[in-house]
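Quick one: structure for this chain?
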Amino acid sequence: MKDLVDTLAAWRAEGAGFGRGVVVRTFGSAPRFEGSTIIATDDGRIAGSVSGGCVEGAVVDEIERARETGRSRVVRYGISDEQAWDIGLACGGIIDVLIEPAVAAAVESAARAAAGIGAQGSRAVVTPLPADSPAPEPGRHEAGVGAKSADVLVVSEDGSLEGTLGEPALDAELVRLAGESLARATSRTVQIAGRWLFIEAFVARPRLIVVGAGQVAIPLVAMARAVGYETIVVDGRAAFATRERFPDVDRLIVGWPDEASLEIGLGPADAVAILTHDAKFDEPAIMTALAGGCRYVGVIGSRKTQSERRRRLAAAGVGPADLARLRGPIGLDLGGREPAETALSIMAEIVATRYDGSGISMTDKWRATADRATADRATAADVPAG
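Got it. Here's what it folds into:
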């Protein structure tokens, strides 16, 4: 949705009327993920996508119907293997699309903030789904006439909630689930007290703070930018922290890391990679990043260095829970030792941490799933009938 903010602004400026469709559930190998959005004007212009092409026309027709009736509804689309193949997929799937007669102001505001326009920051917009929406099981495909759009709720990255579900306990559960969606940068449909709610995550550009402007930092900054991170490099050595060495970095800070962190304003969405090889730089940086609740805190060094460092940090008052969050030795074990290979291993671990990835290869993951399925079938075959 945040990729469509310029289009929305242009359409609003010219006074065009428009509605939208947004994927709220997927089943099987669906072509697009939850949160994928299409918007369509009354005069037939469209932007965005919910399926890669195979059901867009039907969704646009539903948007036109919603514009006429003023009612939202959830429509289920089954995408056949043949349709999926035509749009470049090997198999089909099922998607549930929320059709809305207009784009809620909260949705547009959150998308603009995530895109770095106006008041920035991550937010989750929560839309109650119509009561006649399809059941969460893919066996049912019917939807009723829909309902007028319910008031949306907004959960900010600091846990504050605009709106209410009516009870403090329900609001607390919603904030928890929305916080998980923001942390994983994924939208999803959840159920709270019998109500289905679509949590649409609008996540601001993540940040990577690299402490230490050595050789590994150069490819690490490039890789981080390639996957959408804002990059900041901090080093006390002016000769290392230069634009010549880091032409594409968003920000260079020459100074002590713990002092620079106050200027940066570290928070739970940040990743911090500490590459200084110097206790007087890296240990204050570690303590500051852990105290800031940063999602990822990794530090370079051998296993022996890590053990000695952890003893010093514990003696300085860092608790066991925070020490357990410290990634060191830094990075996934890819086997490479060149600066770019080390940077790749660090970036891979940062991405895995952001999305709660396992860090194991997809082949090994598939084999483990296949082995479990084989074991389950063997166990079932051993159970006598009756």
